[in-house]
Amino acid sequence: MTQRLPLIIFALVMAVIPLVPDIPPFWIVLLDNIGLAALVAMGLVLLTGVGGLTSFGQAAFCGFGAYTTAVLTTAYGLSPWLTLPASLLVSGIAAVVLGIVTVRLSGHYLPLGTIAWGIGLFYLFSKLEFLGRNDGISGIPPLSIGSFKMLSPDAIYYAIWVAVLLSALLTMNLLDSRTGRAIRALRRGHVAAEAFGVQTPRAKLLVFIYAAVLAGLSGWLYAHFQRAANPTPFGAQAGIEYLFIAVVGGAGYVWGAVLGAGIVVVLKEVLQSYLPYIFGGQSQLETIVFGIMLVLLLQLAPSGVWPWLMSWLPFKPARKTPDTSLKLEHRERAPGSSSVLLHIEKARKQFGGVIAVNDVSFDVNAREIVALIGPNGAGKSTTFNLITGVLTATSGKISVLGKEVENAPPQEVVKLGVSRTFQHVKLVPDMTVLENVAIGAHLRGNSGAISSMLRLDRADEAKLLAEAARQIERVGLSDQIDQLAGSLSLGQQRIVEIARALCVDPMLLLLDEPAAGLRHMEKQRLAALLRQLRDGGMSVLLVEHDMGFVMDLADRIVVLDFGTKIAEGTPAAIKTNPEVIKAYLGAAA
Ligand SMILES: Nc1ncnc2c1ncn2[C@@H]1O[C@H](COP(=O)(O)OP(=O)(O)OP(=O)(O)O)[C@@H](O)[C@H]1O
């Protein structure tokens, strides 16, 4: 209830605004335009701010929504309420088609791709005969309920703002869920998300479709508000403006979309109305002043105005503490240490002329801690990437519990109970420790996007958060549970990664330099935790440069040098192995 309170207050304020006596009708028109822009920007919050997929082409999806209802109501006489699902469907289908191509792009190619199809669709709208070419379609009927026709701006005002508030609620619900965390994890790159079972192409396509459907809804409302549709509002310039709105408001924040729309629409209107008086009717000046003002605003609040305003709040919204009595099911553990859990046979990885892993073979048994050591560039991280499916082996065999995984994607390997941490920490810095760790339990939940939006996922979600809280407690970071991951020290972030990996309920835990950045006491606590995990039935394979830590902890050590295994044995044997001393310990001495 407390989390929904701002939404309820906002809804009440918006509901009474048109009832204020003598309110200028033009204000209502402005609020209608703000609502329409906010819907598109809200999709961009999810797509760009949260998912990290920059799109300049959202205006085209408004066009799909607007033209669908324009054609169906004017040419076929359908009721606008019947064309609403059609408009959303057409926008969604267009997003599937464009998204399948676009979400594969990365870096600069992604925004460039969206600009390309944004411009292409604008010209398509203006060339097609049945869409009225450049003139568009007029005579679109107003929305109506019974005999009440929403002809005036204050009549359609409620339809627009109900759509905005419902969309805000559904979007916030989605973000605060298992699917939402998967989407938020996309921004940190696909490797970390996939290591915990997130189907990243599917998650990207989901946000792409969601954003397009919100834009289609805005287009549908726009068509019945203006009672006409032509290509101009759906062109590339409008697409850029929508992205501007999301960035100005705060691209990662649902309410940032509403605030950004308010700022941009009002600023444009004020400048267009008053600048001609000041500068004697010089055309285009308002565009320049508008640009300068937005740049200044972003200097003041680089992450957007909404988070900047929130940072001034004297209190922070409290989060519910997870109920740790709720339990998820656990995997069965191997009863003894005789069974082979991980079997690597002549694994090889070549990058062009570089042989990073050269026919390496070794096993990790159940209930065993194995360390993989070697000088820099020896091939340790590449071996981890081969085991976890991030890289495919050039040749050789890798199997987990007898199942071959050398060509399996990370999402399949993690299902077998193999989880990992990364040499370069891959947490989402603006998510809390709890939220980051809960990503590790992704495969142990099953609520999808729709059930999350409708809040039917609460029982599932409570168990996932409880598991995350338990693992955070296990690694000793309970005091930091609600802190943003990015605010922790690097050593603590590594421990958060271990808690996230533990949330998988793994059989085999792969830790890439877990002790780097830890103080002496913290290393001792980590070693005690890893021993406790081993004794509880887990196996650990770790890459570590701290020889004292490795020699004390490992049951067995595998040594790589230039991609080749040069030794394997107990810590005592490795310490005295002349090859190792020459290649590794000798080099370090
Ligand atoms: N994607 C890649 N493309 C080309 N070469 C690569 C790639 N990844 C690793 N290598 C090369 O493979 C070799 C092994 O690298 P790897 O990162 O596995 O070593 P490492 O033992 O983990 O080293 P460190 O201890 O410094 O992390 C290095 O020569 C490295 O430059």
UniProtKB/TrEMBL annotation:
Function per UniProt: Involved in beta-(1-->2)glucan export. Transmembrane domains (TMD) form a pore in the inner membrane and the ATP-binding domain (NBD) is responsible for energy generation.
Lineage of the species this protein comes from: Bacteria, Pseudomonadati, Pseudomonadota, Alphaproteobacteria, Hyphomicrobiales
Signal peptide feature range: none
Record-linked Pfam families: ABC_tran, BCA_ABC_TP_C, BPD_transp_2
Sequence ranges assigned to domain ABC transporter in this UniProt record: 342-587
Classification via PANTHER family: ABC TRANSPORTER ATP-BINDING PROTEIN (PTHR45772:SF2), CONSERVED COMPONENT OF ABC TRANSPORTER FOR NATURAL AMINO ACIDS-RELATED (PTHR45772)
GO MF term set: ATP binding; ATP hydrolysis activity; branched-chain amino acid transmembrane transporter activity
Membrane topology: Multi-pass membrane protein
InterPro entries reported in the protein's UniProt record: AAA+_ATPase, ABC_AA/LPS_Transport, ABC_BtuC-like, ABC_transp_permease, ABC_transporter-like_ATP-bd, BCA_ABC_TP_C, LivM-like, P-loop_NTPase
Subcellular location: Cell membrane
Cited SMART domains: AAA
Keyword S-adenosyl-L-methionine: no
Keyword Transferase: no
UniProt keyword annotations, A-Z: ATP-binding, Cell membrane, Membrane, Nucleotide-binding, Transmembrane, Transmembrane helix, Transport
GO cellular component, one term: plasma membrane
TM region(s), chain numbering: 7-28, 34-53, 60-78, 84-102, 109-126, 155-175, 205-223, 243-267, 288-309
Name this polypeptide is given: ABC transporter domain-containing protein
Source organism per UniProt: Bradyrhizobium macuxiense
